[in-house]
UniProtKB/TrEMBL annotation, chain A:
One of its GO terms (molecular function) is tryptophan synthase activity. It catalyses: (1S,2R)-1-C-(indol-3-yl)glycerol 3-phosphate + L-serine = D-glyceraldehyde 3-phosphate + L-tryptophan + H2O. Residues 418-458 are annotated as: Disordered. The gene is trpB. This is Tryptophan synthase beta chain. The modification N6-(pyridoxal phosphate)lysine is found at residue 106. It comes from the Bacteria. Tetramer of two alpha and two beta chains. Residues 72-384 form the Tryptophan synthase beta chain-like PALP domain. Keywords: Amino-acid biosynthesis, Aromatic amino acid biosynthesis, Lyase, Pyridoxal phosphate, Tryptophan biosynthesis.
From TrEMBL, chain B:
Transmembrane segments: none annotated. It catalyses: (1S,2R)-1-C-(indol-3-yl)glycerol 3-phosphate + L-serine = D-glyceraldehyde 3-phosphate + L-tryptophan + H2O. Belongs to the TrpA family. It comes from the Bacteria. The lineage of its organism: Bacteria, Bacillati, Actinomycetota, Actinomycetes, Geodermatophilales. This is Tryptophan synthase alpha chain. It comes from Geodermatophilus siccatus.
Length: 458, 265
């Protein structure tokens, strides 16, 4: 059943399905439903409708047509050799979810959930958003399918990601800035749940990641697994072998689950999730939930989370709004506990270095979220090279990185980080390619500003 | 023996409903919140829901979150909650802890049950814990002779109503409207229908929460429910600076309300 990296792989006709979650949404000890009773009927309705829909040929055909004609799937894979020169000689391929319509992997999930909304006869969708990518994707799907749409976004994030707020409004969505608690993604989720429990008869909650109560972790995974299903086949076709490692950034974890799922049975393939290390996990200012957190209950499921001794959720910190979340999907917690995936933290500085490196070496501006995965690839490539391990025979190690989104939304944050502002500089600019001569007026290493200030609104 | 059930039954024997008051520990500070709970009892509350502050109170509306946020930031924890439980128990009223699940899980379920019982607590209401996920709490509450109160909602199916009520001990909490906590102009007849459906599947008292803010509404709910739960209206007394005295006056108004039930036609 499993295809290891050392035996000749065969193309699978049917995608392999993990044996989890169980019928009530548990991934080992994680997952489940920790929600007010008032929502149980709606969650049951969603579960039942989803189970019927995913085997309905009419849905499968409609979903496939949308992915092809609207999203632009399959997304390509791209080798990045100039970038990979900085990664210990590993070969690095990117799965290009940044090329999807709306600019990230989030569209994969919302098209599925929007079709489900129509199927259960509801006319309104709500969603939470952090960086704004899921909000934009949801507003897009709502416009496409004629649904009314309300997006909850932490007030802090509406300032960090003003461009995406404008995009959502252009698409006809109402954007509600959330002013409770820490005014970020976790509070947007609380507010969306409050809306849902009040308006559940008319409204469906289009959840953006593989967290939340059952069936969201399973359903969102299933809608996102197309990333890994495609990439696995593409890598096999192009290279005749499986990658040695698959890397993805992890906030809630939907792009990571999306690319991991197809490879879970391939025991020779390392699965590496890169969490947002912020200023460093030991500083306490980070969003590395599995690396630096403990198991508990948040937003409807048991999983790892950042919490204090009283069980209060601790505010997370990351330069990346999309990873700035103190929880993580329960399937990641399970993959961590059974040892099938490993989770590492990447600091803001490391991520921004990789961000700049990809821009300069390959002409691709990544989302800062995805830059965490790129930084993880650089580090893993160096580790494998120093151990002389990872590849096979004389072949260099092969790393597959999910480039989950593009960086247009992050240009302002990046220009602050790299010193187009007038702030006192602290660190030399993480990430300028020293081999390359910057053109006049370009950002240079000496222009960097204090890291933790760059992600915040001016 | 269930103290909350006995107390509610005692009120019934007097031809009235029980008054259940919610206040969170730690707003505006721990001592004042405890004084407010004692004042609520002084004004006529039979049961006090001792609220555990939580950073992500997904079922609560803006009034309660406004009070709870500063308590969370001040680091109010289970030790403060247990002190409040002891103070309420000392008045002779019945203290029941109201907590989202994570603070209890973090404290340790068995440890929580043992310490709650030792402090004189009657049990706990867990708004985001459904019986399906409550194995450890069912065992710990049984072992320490504590009430466990789960919620039923207008959207609950008959099968879930029966299963949830069967898992409860003490009373059943009927969340009267679909929505979050907060005061409402009318309580609505969804509450009455839910209580009637719940009575078909259980002998336990049924208390109604979400939306009651004054004596007239309390009288209306007392016409069909065994207990009237009031939260946001109490919290508003503190938010608006009327302190323990405001809490006492509100309790008196509500306590008069539950004693003149509006009979259901």
């Amino acid at each position: 059943m499993t295809t290891s990296a050392v035996s000749p792989p065969e193309a699978r006709l049917e995608p392999a399905h993990p044996s989890w979650p169980d019928a009530t949404g548990h991934f080992g000890v994680f997952g489940g439903r920790f929600v007010p009773e008032a929502l149980i009927a709606a969650l049951d309705e969603l579960t039942e409708a989803y189970r019927a829909m995913r085997v309905d040929p009419a849905f499968i055909e409609e979903f496939a047509a949308l992915q092809r004609d609207y999203t632009g799937r399959p997304s390509p894979i791209t080798e990045v050799p100039r970038f990979a020169q900085h990664a210990g000689g590993a070969r690095i391929w990117l799965k290009r979810e940044d090329l999807n319509h709306t600019g990230s992997h989030k569209i994969n999930n919302v098209l599925g959930q929007a079709l489900l909304t129509k199927r259960i006869g509801k006319q309104r969708v709500i969603a939470e958003t952090g960086a704004g990518q899921h909000g934009v994707a949801t507003a897009t799907a709502a416009a496409l399918m004629g649904l009314s749409c309300t997006i909850y976004m932490g007030e802090e994030d509406t300032r960090r990601q003003a461009l995406n707020v404008a995009r959502m409004r252009l698409l006809g969505a109402e954007v509600v800035p959330v002013t409770t608690g820490s005014r970020t993604l976790k509070d947007a989720i609380n507010e969306a749940f409050r809306d849902w429990v009040t308006n559940v008869e008319t409204t469906n909650y289009v959840f953006g990641t593989v967290a939340g109560p059952h069936p969201f972790p399973e359903m969102v995974r299933d809608f996102q697994r197309v990333i890994g299903d495609e990439a696995r086949a593409q890598v096999l076709e192009r290279l005749g072998r499986l990658p040695d490692a698959v890397l993805a950034c992890v906030g809630g974890g939907s792009n990571a689950i999306g690319i991991f799922t197809a490879f879970v049975p391939d025991e020779g393939v390392r699965l590496v999730g890169l969490e947002a290390g912020g200023d460093g996990v030991d500083t306490g200012r980070h969003a590395a939930t599995i690396t630096g957190g403990t198991p508990g209950v948040l937003h409807g499921a048991r999983s790892y989370l950042l919490q204090d001794d009283n069980g209060q959720t601790v505010e997370s910190h990351s330069i990346s709004a999309g990873l700035d979340y103190p929880g993580v999907g329960p399937e990641h917690s399970h993959l961590h506990d059974i040892g099938r995936a490993e989770y590492r933290a990447v600091t803001d500085a490391e991520a921004m270095e990789a961000f700049a490196l990809l821009c300069r070496t390959e002409g691709i501006i990544p989302a800062i979220e995805s830059a965490h995965a790129l930084a993880g690839a650089v580090k893993l490539g160096e580790e494998l090279a120093s151990r002389g391990a990872g590849g096979r025979g004389d072949e260099p190690p092969l790393l597959l990185v999910n480039l989950s989104g593009r960086g247009d939304k992050d240009v302002e944050t990046a220009s602050r980080w790299f010193g187009l502002g007038d702030r006192e500089h602290v660190e030399p600019g993480a990430g300028m390619d020293t081999d390359q001569q910057p053109t006049e007026g370009a950002v240079t290493s000496g222009d960097a500003v204090a890291g933790q200030d760059a992600g915040e609104s001016a | 023996m269930s103290r909350s059930q006995d107390t509610i039954a005692g009120a019934r024997a007097e031809g009235r409903s029980a008054l259940v008051a919610y206040l969170p520990v730690g707003y505006p500070d721990v001592d004042t919140s405890i004084a407010a709970m004692v004042a609520a009892v002084g004004g006529g509350a039979d049961v006090v829901e001792v609220g555990v502050p939580y950073s992500d109170p997904g079922m609560d509306g803006p009034v309660i979150q406004q009070a709870v946020d500063p308590a969370v930031r001040a680091g109010v924890g289970m030790r403060d909650v247990l002190r409040a439980v002891e103070a309420v128990a000392a008045t002779g009223a019945v203290p029941v802890v109201m907590s989202y699940w994570n603070p209890i899980e973090r404290y340790g379920v068995e440890r929580f049950a043992a310490d709650l019982a030792a402090a004189g607590g009657a049990g706990a209401i867990t708004p985001d814990l459904i019986p399906d996920e409550a194995g450890e709490w069912l065992a710990a509450s049984e072992a320490h002779d504590l009430d466990r109160v789960f919620l039923v909602a207008p959207s609950s199916t008959d099968a879930r109503l029966a299963a949830t009520a069967a898992a409860c001990r003490g009373f059943v909490y009927a969340a009267s409207t679909m929505g979050v906590t907060g005061t409402r102009a009318t309580v609505g007849d969804a509450a009455e229908r839910l209580v009637a459906r719940t009575r078909e599947v259980t002998e336990l008292p049924v208390c109604v929460g979400l939306g009651v803010s004054n004596g007239d509404q309390a009288a209306e709910v007392a016409g069909f429910a065994d207990g009237v739960i009031v939260g946001s209206a109490y919290v508003r007394e503190l938010l608006e600076g009327r302190g323990a005295e405001g809490v006492r006056r509100l309790s008196e108004d509500l306590a008069a309300g539950v004693r003149r039930p509006v009979s259901v036609p």
